[in-house]
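Design review, sub-item: ligand-bound model
Attendees: FS, YL, KQ
YL presented the inputs for the iron/sulfur cluster complex:
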Amino acid sequence: MDNEHKKIKIGWFTFSCCEDNTIVMTEIMNDHWQEWKKLFDFRHANVLKSKNILDELDIAFVEGAIASEKHAEKLREIREKSKKLVAVGACAVVGMPAAQRNYFNEQQKQEIEFLVARFAALPKVLKVSDVVKVDAEVGGCPMDPDKFLTAVAGLVEELKKV
Ligand code: SF4
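KQ shared the predicted structure:
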C-alpha cells in the first residue's frame, strides 16, 4: 500500500455557521502542516481546495447548526461515509447561538415566517447530534485549539486500532 492510501482521510463540513472554527483549524494547520501532510489526506475541505471528494472518510468534522432538511440529508450522507464524526464549535455541539430563532416569541416567529419558507428551513434549528450519531465533540466558539488537537490525536489512535 502506498503512503497516500495509508493516510487518514479527512473531511471538513460547514452548515449554518460563520466559520470561526474553520479559521481556527487553518491557523492550527499553519503550525502542524509538516506533520499533517504526512498523516492526513484532506479529501473534502472547501476552505482548502476547490475540488472535493465525498466518497469514504475516516474522520468528518462538522461545524454549524442544521437548519434545513437539505442540511440534514447532507449530514446523514456524511455520517454514512465516515468512520468517525466530530461536531466542532458551539452551534454544532449545542445548536446555539445559530438556533436562536427556536426561542423567538410568537410575534418574532411570524415576522420570520417568510424567510423560513424561502429557505425551506426546518421549524427548529438542530444540533448535529439531533440528526446523526456523534463520536466526539469540541465545543465552544471558536473551538479551543488544544481540545481540537486532543480530540484529533484520540481519533487517530482509535483509527490505528481498526
Ligand atoms: S457561534 Fe456558531 S455560527 Fe458563530 S462561528 Fe461559532 S459555531 Fe459558527
